[in-house]
Predict the 3D structure of the following.
Amino acid sequence: MSDSPVMTHGAEAHHEHPSYQRHHFETVDQQFDATNFAMWLFLLTEVMFFGGLFMSYLLMRNWYYQAFVEGSHQLSIFWGTANTTVLIISSFTMAMAVWSAQMRRQRALLAFLGLTFILGTAFLGIKAIEWHEKWEKHHVPGLHQFSEQSFLNPKSDTEVWNEYHDKPLAPDMAQKTEEYFFLYFAMTGMHALHMVIGIGLLIYIFIRARTGAYTNGHFTFVENFGLYWHFVDIIWIFLFPLLYLISRY
Amino acid sequence: MSEHDNGNNSEAEYHEQHHIVSPVTYAIILLILLVATATTVWASYIDLGEWHIAPGLTLFWNPVVALAIACTKMTFVVLFFMHIKYSRKLTKLTVISGLFIFLVLIGMTLSDYFSRAWGRW
């Protein structure tokens, strides 16, 4: 992925290479395929990583369904849908950034990278608004005195009460809402951490793209970063219905 | 830009092997994903009922529909945004084996938890 200048091998049978082809690869194609395959293997380890979280979620949801329903009613459908939309559009702009790199259009590449950066940051901003609301309502597990008030006495939480008329939970079930919020913060938190790393990489790519990197025919890094970005999008595609859309009727 | 003739040749070969997905395709996928998002939110507000398969075993349709829509969205993202539709068999196989192992992880663990005689020992 670096542009270390490797021109010739010195051996007489070898032809000259583009500067971005590393000497241990036969062709640029082989180099692309190897890197691309490695990126997919990395994404598989990420699937396993998030898989553990999804697994715990499924089990806890089956055991403490009522707690998960009422915990989920605390989340804002408006912000959740807005964030899903923002992230999906950012995936589109990232796909377009890869296309711009493939077509060697530097200005388009910079524009789409910039848009992806803005949308990614907007996603984190919206997430921060949502998390802050949980903090204020004492719905952060293990910190800031977790409160079961909204679940023991739903009428005390007028905003949610007006929409859902939830029944009061028995004390042992109300306790389990902390389990729901633990998974909510673990899953959205891990996802957000991936977004932060992604945004960091976007800045790096943007700076390098300004000097003409990636539009010289060597766009492997942008392509593979795109895979990462889309993967993080897919995680959210599953988090959204699982965390926000539990029994909304 | 490559200064070498050979570089240009391999570039021509490159375009044969690597399909460049057109922006129109990307835009259509974006539209599909947005419509699917709206559908999943809309569907979550409707009681889709449940299916009593056997005593003590009930399937609720709402989460089934929500996950089916999410899987559809994932498929579009993987196939087009992530170029799997146009990639080599090795890459396709890698993706499918990843999904398979994920399902084994979920399936085996859940069947263990659900088949235990909880509280009866």
Q: What stands out?
A: The first strand of chain B starts at residue 50 and ends at 54. Residues 21-86 of chain B form one domain. The two ends of chain B are 72 Å apart (CA to CA).
